Write the structure tokens for this entry.
Amino acid sequence: MTEGGSVRAPDPEKNLSDTGPRKGQGARRGGGDAATRGRTTIADGVVEKIAGLAARDVLGVHTMGSGLSRTFGAVRDRVPGGSKSATRGVKAEVGEVQTALDLEIVVDYGVSIADVARDVRENVIAAVERMTGLEVVEVNIAVSDVKLPEEEDEEPETRLQ
């Protein structure tokens, strides 16, 4: 207010930078980086799906899971609305920043099991770490069977389409 009791308009020439953010600038509320405000949790099943799909992409992996899980999976796949389980043969233990995986695979006859296991580890670790940000501390691989060329698949194509 001035001496005469009238209100003075703000001087447009004054620097207003100390009064708050200018138009077009984001007002930062709260403290710290936005990425640190809150918590993200990743379910075991999410990591299992990522790992299962990454393992199946490796040349020499015929299928995933033990004979029993593949049999149950084949029955489930035939049920209308059922689909192939991306998590078959994969078990994940997920912590806040790390995960450990157990995979059970069936390899094609004639491939180097050691090479396939190494390639599966590399592919699974790369996919899980890239997609989740979790550190993969171990990938244990159990080779439960070898698919021989003359063997029929346990999961035949369905006749209905």
User: Anything to note?
Assistant: The CA atoms of residues 62 and 134 lie 27 Å apart. Strands lie at 61-64, 90-94, 98-108, 135-147. DSSP finds three helices and four strands in the chain.
